[in-house]
UniProtKB/TrEMBL annotation:
Signal peptide positions (record): none
Top enzyme category: transferase
The protein's name: 2-amino-4-hydroxy-6-hydroxymethyldihydropteridine pyrophosphokinase
Family classification: Belongs to the HPPK family.
Statement: the UniProt record of this protein carries the keyword Transport: no
Keywords of this entry: ATP-binding, Folate biosynthesis, Kinase, Nucleotide-binding, Transferase
EC number: 2.7.6.3
Cross-referenced InterPro entries: Hppk (IPR000550), Hppk_sf (IPR035907)
Domain 7,8-dihydro-6-hydroxymethylpterin-pyrophosphokinase: 14-166
Gene assigned in the entry: folK
Pfam name, any one: HPPK
């Protein structure tokens, strides 16, 4: 994809990650399987997939390295239905949505953005985006918040995403994916390694 702004209201940005085996196999196999399952879903087309990146688990030493990727989707489903489809694919690969946040897992499919929608509203989105880091691990929104309130802070999201949607512009920050990636502190990507798909 070029660095041109993305205008299509039906384009969705997706982050994929895993660092444990799933029912499909090791993380790389699981991510490929999740993409093939999504491609079978009515109303969803997978348009582009990034390389797979190796990313150290956070905090350091908390588990095996993650495999992270990003995908650009075209969806005829509304955002809540698309999220439900992501959860269906995760469940089919053995994920149980319970326990602590930010833990080792066999598959994680995160809806990062849907066109330029801001959900549920600008004020709520801004509040979640401003949540201090120590509170982020303790609290999760009850409903869908778009764009994902942490995406601008995460190299493991932005580096793969810049390969498939560098020109997508955050509707609250006014920054493109490429710009948000460049805004990250020096050294953020130092331990990440791109690989093949």
């Amino acid at each position: 994809m070029s660095g041109q702004p993305i205008q299509d209201a039906n384009l969705a940005l997706l982050a994929l990650g895993a660092n444990l085996p799933s029912s499909a196999g090791p993380p790389r196999v699981t991510i490929r399987k999740s993409l093939s399952e999504l491609a079978k879903s009515p109303g969803i087309r997978v348009l582009a997939v990034s390389r797979f990146w190796r990313t150290p688990a956070f905090p350091a030493g908390s588990g095996p390295d993650f495999v992270n990727a990003a995908a650009l989707l075209h969806s005829r489903l509304p955002p809540d239905a698309l999220l439900a489809e992501l959860h269906r694919v995760e469940a089919g690969l053995g994920r149980l949505r319970q326990g602590a946040r930010w833990q080792a897992r066999g598959i994680d499919l995160d809806l990062l953005a849907y066109g330029d929608l801001v959900l549920p509203d600008a004020a709520t989105h801004d509040a979640w985006r401003a949540l201090p880091p120590e509170r982020q691990a303790e609290r999760a929104p009850e409903g869908l918040v778009l764009p994902h309130p942490r995406m601008q802070d995460r190299g493991f999201v932005l580096a793969p995403l810049a390969e498939v949607a560098p020109g997508w512009r955050h509707p609250r920050l006014g920054r493109s994916v490429a710009q948000m990636l460049a805004d990250l502190p020096a050294g953020t990507l130092a331990e990440m390694q791109p690989g093949d798909t």
